[in-house]
Write a structure and sequence with these properties.
about 290 residues, mainly alpha, globular
């Protein structure tokens, strides 16, 4: 007698949404999932990088040309307004453009990680946080490659590497935390209502002008102490200043209290965003 094979139910069980997880257990569970999917994240990262440069004659060179061209536009505009720019002004704007593009694109990739991968999510099961984290890692790599463009500027302006250069990786880590937290936390809401995407897009465009992209804390007049305090309430101000002043070899220009505030805000945003994502993603994927 031929025995009948047992029905295969693994794929059905894997395809079901993840059960909601409490805020306390959410982040540790998410981290365990990511550690178990390192190879998959690597493949998604390579895919994103290949797609960015596919069909382009210049390829990687666009990572250098784009921030330089954008910076040139800002330099010309603000030089006409302020009638002159200080030493290293062009380099400061180049860094600001690169860092802001990284933050805005990384956040957008996280936010759209569920809706943009709906077809793949419906076909197979993988921890859904993989899509957003892979997008951030890919953007981080491309931003790091773009920052190579600052080396010729440092040589031209005679800026030797200093100990302040250690601010650069710290600033980039804080920016990554904030982009990931905001993006992952808003990803489930973006599935429920696409107005979230348009609203955050507006905030991103407006936020460029209140973040140190085309200006720095050192360019705020000494008599505008209140304005400086207001700008320091922006959690991106300190991390972006870390990257800028780390390259320029200058002090950040913020007190320890504001630095601690920005660090706590970025870490808290990351924890809250990942917790919200882990709790809601298993529910909202049914809306895809």
């Amino acid at each position: 007698m031929v025995s009948r094979a047992a029905p295969v139910t693994d794929s059905i069980e894997l395809a079901t949404p993840n059960p909601p997880v409490s805020f306390v257990r959410g982040v540790p569970t998410l981290v365990r999932n990511l550690m178990g999917q390192r190879e998959l994240i690597r493949e998604f990262v390579l895919r994103d990088i290949r797609l960015k440069y596919r069909g382009s004659a210049f390829g990687y060179l666009w990572s250098l040309l784009e921030p330089m061209l954008m910076a040139m536009v800002f330099v010309v505009m603000f030089s006409l307004i302020s009638r002159g720019a200080g030493r290293g002004y062009t380099l400061s704007i180049v860094i600001g453009v690169i860092v802001w593009q990284y933050f805005s694109i990384a956040m957008a990739r996280c936010q759209g990680s569920l809706s943009q991968n709906a077809g793949l999510i419906e076909q197979i099961y993988v921890p859904r946080e993989v899509f957003g984290i892979a997008g951030v890692v890919a953007q981080f790599i491309m931003a790091a490659l773009s920052l190579v463009v600052v080396v010729p500027f440092m040589i031209y302006y005679g800026l030797p590497p200093t100990v302040e250069l250690l601010y650069v990786p710290l600033g980039m880590v804080l920016i990554t935390m904030l982009a990931t937290g905001v993006g992952m936390g808003s990803a489930p809401w973006n599935v429920l209502n696409r107005d979230v995407e348009y609203f955050t897009g507006f905030l991103t465009r407006a936020g460029m002008y209140i973040s140190p992209v085309m200006w720095s804390l050192s360019t705020i007049p000494p008599g505008q102490a209140t304005l400086k305090k207001i700008m320091l309430l922006n959690p991106l101000t300190v991390p972006m200043e870390m990257v800028k002043q780390g390259v320029l070899g200058a002090p950040i220009g913020a007190s320890f209290g504001y630095i601690a505030y920005s660090c706590a805000f970025c870490v808290g945003s990351l924890w809250l965003g990942l917790s919200v994502f882990r709790r809601m993603e298993g529910i909202v994927v049914k809306k895809l």
